[in-house]
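A further point concerns the way the authors explain their paired sequence and structure data. Since the whole study asks how a given chain folds, the encoding of that fold should be made plain. A single example would do more here than another paragraph of explanation. An entry of this sort, consisting of the sequence and the corresponding backbone structure tokens, reads as follows:

_____
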Amino acid sequence: MAGASAPAYLTKEVTMGYKVWPLIDDALIASESRTPKVSKIPSVWPSEASAVAKQNGESNILGKCHRASYLRMIGWEVTNSVDAPGAWRWVTGRKIEDHLTELAKHAKIFVANGVRTIVRDLYLPLEMDLITIDPETNEGWIIECKTYYGYMAKKEIETNRQPKTSNLIKVCLYLNEFKTGKKLKEVIAESIEQKKSGLDIRNRIEIDPETLARLDDGPLRAKLVYISRDECLRKEFDITIQEDFDGMHYPVVDGIMYRQFTIESMYQRYQVLQSYWFEARTEAVRRLEEKGIKKPETLSLVLKAGDPIDNSPLSEADQEYLQKLDREVKLLPDSYWPPAEYEWSYSPEKVEKLYSIGEIGKIKYQDYKKRKPGKDRIGSFHCGYCSYKRVCVPKQGSGAYGQMFDLNHLDFPDE
């Protein structure tokens, strides 16, 4: 209407509301961050599994870097916490895993989840997320669910039809430890009794009695199942372990033997990692003794492979000594650390080599050659995601240290 005034809400200054995502992201990062704790034993994790590579363009190992695992084991303060996108990926992955378990129940192939055991020789706790049954043969299957995105991950999984090596190593660890449906049933029975006792609050085992009763006692197999976070494409790989003519055991993926690494080397790698922990712990005990600080007679220490675990309650003197021991370990020179097994910044020669064999993507290589700010370095994604890169990278050499400026501002593709 001619001459009419504008509505009042259009004439007032509009004030923008608060931003929700920064607050939510901060809360998520806080909830997902974990302060490393020192253990009385050299506990290692399945996620720290690694193997000796028979052929690899980047390094002679596959999987987790020993230095990062060691620093976690001695309780070194994290120097680089996960960012919001990384934390959201963790949450997304866990939610998909949980939903897959519920759908397995609806599909009537669910046997169990939360099955826990420990590899005592390695002080290694294991927990499997999902066990299923083949409805036709009653064979047992270990299911490991993973999400992925990014050019290199798509190339590996979708184009090359290969699982991620780190995922393959981890699932082989589960498969090698459980081996048969008979052993799985024994572990499940033990877990159920432990849950009833209420002594292990982390015990979340859940079973379907009907499918568990049908489960075959023969060899177990495993599946790596993937879903992409962008297009929701799904892919699965069947995994077994087989002995080759050289007497070593290798993973078999969809019927094809992968000779990238041996199962034996996975266990050797854990033993090497723990040897650094034992050496540092023993040296710290010696240095405390030189200072006149002796171990209480009531305290039992694990200082070499095979030492028994004493779960007796700790006295005040025991706890005080352990705190001093933990501090003394951290005061040891970095010569007691395992070497860094990946590189923050590759040499120009190595970049060219890795690009020539397809280990570096075309776009990343072009950005590197153009020397784009923040893109003028190519190195291992392990270093990019490492929680200890700020303390480790300066020790990798002057070339790596010279590019410390972008430690917290890099966009690394998925593994």
In short: The chain has two domains: 36-301+311-341, 348-406. Residues 401-415 have pLDDT under 50 and may be disordered.
